[in-house]
Write a structure and sequence with these properties.
A: about 375 residues; B: about 450 residues; two-stranded antiparallel sheet; 6 helices; about 10% helix
């Protein structure tokens, strides 16, 4: 290159650099009001997916799907560029990465149905792996949901298709086992509940109409999901908790988000809005069974919510008190409630222990929970 | 008698040689086209201002850059063959003596064959992530003229004279080149509208020598060992010029594009015999193009463009200076030209490599130097001058170029195009390779 040519090239390089530097916001995201062309969105989405920027990938790929042509293996992008337009493949990856497994499974199904990736394609193996992963994770999520809801037969149904999947990391089997265990525990709990509350005539006679304890009729209304029947909720502190474990004040209803704002813990909390669905009222045994089920599913919040009104019945069932205490302790163990609730839980537990044999129930409870509730592990069955 | 005639003619020849050397370079028409780069553009008849959908948009219409969403590297190799007729000998008027080389009645035209092959266009396109800005840099060989010619000197006889005249034999070597280095940016201010601008740094080079020779007797062959006159044009200069464009309808089926490219100006040195050197300007033509493209189906693309090329800019100084020695500068002109380009493409989606078949044509108006005497010649010398130049520059003509080509997409990353442009005196072969970076 001659001197003049070199100067010209240098000037151009300088211009490019200056242009890049002065273009305002050139690297920024597209501002509001400006929409990329569909293939620009697609290219951006693919780039984002390759970088693992899943939020951008989902946003841009969904935009490309909305505004672009039908996906295909030979689609005219712009100019003479004929390329594969396969947003669902990358959307599937992004959905998988963001745990939207059902969406991912559907996206991959479209890729397969439309034959956008076929055997021999570079992405074929990855598509199979990702599809299996999505299917597995979706099934596991379904199974977990069923398990949480106590629909144990659905657990097995959900995981049956993924047993032996290449994506199986053992969770399916574990879920199946958990479902079986839960069924077994519930069977045990059901037997105990059906045997009725322990003999506690002295309890019944000692604290009639204790302050804060709702009348029997109110309890029945509570059981019938009548919010008007709920007793006024009184904010309590550990100092206000009566020393007599047989006359406990009503527990403060658990607020799922309350642990995020400790200031709210001592404030009166309104009960949840009424459920307008007509459901038959539960009797005490059913409430205890339901609470125990929720406890074993790990749904401690719901267990507290279900058992708390029943515990306000005079006299409360020792099974109700037992599982309510265990639920509070479990919530505390998982850091989801204030430590101040532990004293109340211990009082409930003590009450439950005094009400009769709980051997079969104690065997099912985590030693850590029992320890928190003051149970001597040496004496635990 | 013959000896007397020879003596008179020789006097006429000698008297003419000095003045003639000043305008000899104009006797060989200089003609060049300012075509858009790229094999695709070439094969679609150059109708690209309303399309501008590849890296050549940086020159054809920088607004079109906004359509590119991936980094692209593009390179084009182009072979150009241009045959330029020139007045090589013969007798324009009077009866030939049938002696020496004066044996032909009528003018004899030779052909200067210009051949050039090189990397015509290289570019890099970088879209920014927002897709609102795209920048590009390029190198483009806009013009390559490489002519060699030799004239034995035509014979003439004015009706008022009983003697003949002979133009001095001349050797000409003309080399002109213009290479652009440019950067441009495309911006989308709103949906469906793009604007673009670029700045081109052009390197201009000229190295032309025109030599007059003596003859072996008035009717004899040229004697190349004896120079009787010499003129030259030499220079190497850099000019900067902008180009701007607008494209409406990006992303739609129909697009309208307007592009203006400013021609840079350069200076070079002219030396004519013993006269002092002069600084002369070469002003490249401006171009203004309006184009439209329409894609009724994904497989079919139609494009048209009308381009106004302001060739007259060449007239002032570059042309007139060459006629200055003869005192007839005002009689040489170049007209602005309006080109019409049309092209189409069929894309066979389902075929392997998705081939694109392209056809096009364009109308190329005569834009060679014309000689138009401004007044009736008063002397025999003027008359023979007018006659000679009128004959020498009579070959300029309007032309229609036929174009065609094919494009293949070997993969989404690699695209290859080939094109051809054929006209009566020229043909161009072009091949380009586009490599996209960052494709899946």
């Amino acid at each position: 290159m001659t001197l003049a040519g070199g100067r010209a090239a240098a000037v151009v390089v300088g211009l490019v650099l200056v242009t890049s530097a002065v273009v305002p916001g050139a690297r920024a995201q597209s501002p509001a009001g400006f929409q990329r062309l569909w293939y620009q969105s697609y290219d951006e989405g693919v780039r984002a997916a390759q970088k693992g920027d899943w939020a951008t990938a989902i946003q841009t790929l969904e935009a490309a799907k909305r505004s672009g042509p039908a996906p295909g293996r030979r689609v005219l992008f712009q100019g003479d560029r004929v390329d594969v337009f396969n947003p669902d493949y990358y959307l599937g990856l992004a959905y998988n990465a963001t745990k939207r497994f059902a969406d991912a499974e559907a996206a991959f199904a479209r890729v397969t149905t439309d034959k956008l990736v076929v055997a021999g394609d570079r992405q074929f193996d990855e598509l199979r792996k990702q599809t299996e992963f999505a299917r597995y994770e979706r099934a596991v999520a379904d199974a977990e949901r069923a398990l949480r809801a106590g629909r144990f037969t659905e657990v097995e149904k959900a995981i049956a298709p993924i047993i032996g999947s290449i994506a199986d990391d053992g969770r399916a089997g574990s879920l199946a086992q958990r479902a079986k265990d839960a069924v077994a525990k519930l069977a045990t709990a059901r037997v105990d509940v059906q045997q009725g509350p322990p003999a506690s005539a002295n309890v019944r006679g000692e604290q009639p109409g204790a302050p804060g304890a709702p009348a029997k009729a109110d309890a029945e209304k509570v059981a019938a999901n009548d919010p008007k029947a709920l007793p006024p909720v009184v904010a309590t502190t550990p100092a206000q908790v009566p020393t007599n474990p047989l006359n406990p004040p009503p527990m403060r209803p658990y607020v799922p988000d309350g642990d995020k704002n400790t200031a709210a813990l001592g404030n009166p909390v309104r009960p949840p809005p009424p459920d307008n669905r007509q459901t038959p009222p539960l009797n005490e045994a059913e409430i205890a069974l339901r609470g125990a089920t929720l406890y074993f599913e790990g749904n401690y919040d719901e267990a507290v919510r279900v058992l708390s009104p029943a515990f306000a019945v005079d006299p409360p069932s020792n099974i109700v008190a037992f599982y309510l205490a265990c639920s509070h302790a479990a919530l505390l163990a998982s850091g989801r409630t204030a430590p101040s609730t532990l004293d109340e839980a211990r009082q409930m537990f003590s009450y439950a222990r005094g009400g009769g044999s709980l051997q079969r129930h104690l065997r099912l409870i985590s030693p850590r929970v029992l320890q928190m509730l003051g149970e001597s592990l040496a004496s635990a069955p | 008698m013959t000896a007397v005639v020879r003596g008179v003619c020789a006097v006429a020849l000698s008297a003419l040689a000095g003045a003639a050397s000043a305008q000899t370079s104009l006797q060989v028409p200089v003609q060049f086209d300012f075509l858009n780069p790229g094999a695709k553009s070439l094969s679609m008849g150059g109708a690209f201002a309303g399309l501008a959908d590849d890296a050549t948009a940086t020159l054809a219409n920088p607004a079109g850059l906004i359509q590119l969403s991936q980094r692209e590297i593009s390179i084009e190799g182009r072979f150009t063959a241009l045959n330029t007729p020139f007045l090589a000998g013969g007798r324009i008027s009077g009866q030939p003596f049938n002696q020496g080389i004066d044996t032909v009645t009528g003018p004899v035209f030779g052909t200067s064959e210009g051949r050039h092959f090189g990397p015509n266009f290289i570019s890099v396109v970088v879209p920014f992530r927002s897709n609102r800005w795209v920048v590009a840099a390029h190198r483009h060989e806009l013009m390559r003229v490489d002519q060699e010619f030799f004239s034995t000197g035509v014979f003439q006889q004015d009706p008022s004279e009983f003697t003949s005249r002979r133009d001095a034999p001349q050797q000409g070597d003309r080399r002109l080149s213009m290479t652009n280095y440019g950067a441009s940016v495309g911006f989308a201010p709103r949906q469906g509208v793009a604007v673009g601008a670029g700045l081109t740094v052009s390197r201009f080079s000229i190295d032309s020598v025109f030599t007059r020779y003596d003859v072996e007797g008035f009717l004899g062959a040229p004697n190349r060992s004896r120079e009787v006159g010499r003129s030259s044009q030499t220079g190497d200069d850099i000019g900067v010029a902008p180009n701007v464009g607008v494209l409406v309808g990006t992303g739609g089926m129909t697009r309208l594009g307007v592009q203006y490219r400013h021609g840079p100006s350069f200076t070079f040195t002219t030396k004519d015999g013993n006269a002092p050197e002069r600084e002369v300007a070469f002003r490249a033509p401006h171009t203004l193009a309006v184009g439209v493209s329409h894609r009724p189906r994904a497989s079919i693309l139609l494009a048209a463009e009308v381009t106004r090329v302001f060739y007259q800019r060449l007239e002032n100084e570059f042309v007139t200076d060459q006629a200055r020695g003869a005192g007839r500068a005002a009689d040489f002109t170049i007209d602005d030209g309006t080109e019409v380009h049309v092209g189409g493409q069929y894309l066979a989606f389902q075929w392997r490599w998705a081939p694109k078949f392209r056809l096009g044509a364009w109308y190329d108006p005569n834009h060679s130097v014309r000689f138009r005497p401004s007044s009736s010649p008063a002397t025999a010398s003027d008359r023979t001058f007018d006659e000679r130049l009128t004959t020498a520059l009579s070959n300029g003509e309007n032309r229609v170029h036929g174009t065609g080509g094919v494009g293949l997409s070997f993969s989404p990353r690699i695209e290859w195009n080939a094109g051809v442009d054929v006209a009566s005196r020229s043909y161009i072969l072009s091949t380009s390779l586009i490599v996209r970076v960052g494709t899946r």
